[in-house]
Amino acid sequence: MATAAAPKPSKQLPPPNSDFFQFAELLSDEERALVKKVRTYMETKVQPIINKYWVEDAFPFELLPSYKELNIAGLGLNGYGCPGGSPLLFGLVAMEIARTDVSFCTFHGVHTGLAMMSIYLAGTEEQKQKWLPPMARMEKVGCFGLTEPLVGSGTGAGLLTTATRDGDSWILNGQKRWIGNAPWCDVSIIWARDVEDNQVKGFIVENKTTPGFSVEKMQNKIALKVVQNGQITMTDCHVPDANRLQGGKGTFRDAALVLRGTRNGSGWEITGAQMGAYENALKYAQERLQFGKPIGSFQLVQELLAKMLGNIVACQGMLVRAGQLETEGKLTDAQAAVVKAYCTSKARETVAWARELMGGNGILVDYNVARFFADTEAIYSYEGTYQMQTLIVGKAITGLSAFV
């Protein structure tokens, strides 16, 4: 939606740039080319249609063929038909996707960072060879089933979905909730508690061919509306033992290891949302006229923009260092937790300031910022709430557990 045109300036105004400290320069030329390719795709293919799908609470399946051609499914994973790449590249690509739309980034992150990563980290060599190549080619799309209707933050100790050994198979019973991609994807990574040893184990479940497996699409969300979340119900689902993730520890530590990486990934995603909100607000401030001149020339507006940019740069700097630690195999649960907690809390400030800057237009989806404003609320809570992240950090720095 167009705003009132500003008088033609005597010199060209600088374009919005949320990589103010040039973190992309840390990548190789080849990696920067991929990031640029993703940005171009998001701006030309996704941006023109995403508001319509967000309002309609629908996923743009028409984009899947062109998304596959980006070859970024499985980014960060080596071998098995995956494109590989460093944690820094993975993060900057996620940030670029979220800069246009957080929902589309969540779809990408659930498939690559949760479903594929679970098989990559906790699967056997045979399981990796079987599942990862078709998932990298997007012939099969995955989801990650951990959260339950009655169990969110307490999944480590209170998981209610059960797994019962039955000869060469397992019988799964229970429900999962808030599972992104679940209503339409092909493969679910389901975490269930073994009734015999009380340990949490992971299972690869084929959604469309497993009797007793059903998914109901969740309705009436106010955030991440493009992502299709589902409530999974499993009633005596028989899963072969060959589909049990057997390459890890066979405990909740397998799921926690996956979540360590994705919590860090959530930081990249939410920082991308901040970038998108800031750049849309900045462009608006350069074009919107009040009192005969662009509102971007007002001191209070410039202060809001400077505070937004400060939040973005602080989050980017933390994420780059976390990416370096992850590359070196040194990233801890507490470090990933502080990334997720800090970046999501700063994002709430940034998107609120962007909405404030735009006045009444800030609540219209047409101007994009409202979408980032709403979607940030979901990222603030998923992959572990802010409060849970602070308790993980608190235990690490004090040596004392405050968990109930």
Description:
There is one protein chain. The chain has 11 helices and 11 strands. The protein is 50% helix and 15% strand. Helix 4 packs antiparallel against helix 5 and helix 8 (299-327) packs antiparallel against helix 9 (333-357). By secondary structure, the chain is α+β, with helices and mostly antiparallel strands. Strands 3, 4, 5, 6, 7, 8 and 9 form a 7-stranded mixed beta sheet that branches. Strands 1-2 form a two-stranded antiparallel ribbon. It has a two-stranded antiparallel ribbon with strand order 10-11. It has 3 domains: 23-136, Orthogonal Bundle (Butyryl-Coa Dehydrogenase, subunit A, domain 1), CATH 1.10.540.10; 142-250, Butyryl-CoA Dehydrogenase, subunit A, domain 2; 253-398, Butyryl-CoA Dehydrogenase, subunit A, domain 3 (Up-down Bundle).
Number of domains: 3
Mean of residue pLDDT values:
93
Within CATH, the superfamily of the largest domain carries the name Butyryl-CoA Dehydrogenase, subunit A, domain 3
> Over the alpha carbons, how many angstroms does the gyration radius reach?
22 Å
Tally of separate helices = 11
Structural class of the helices, strands and pairings? alpha+beta
Protein name: Acryloyl-CoA reductase (NADH)
Family: Belongs to the acyl-CoA dehydrogenase family.
Cofactor: FAD
Enzyme class: oxidoreductase
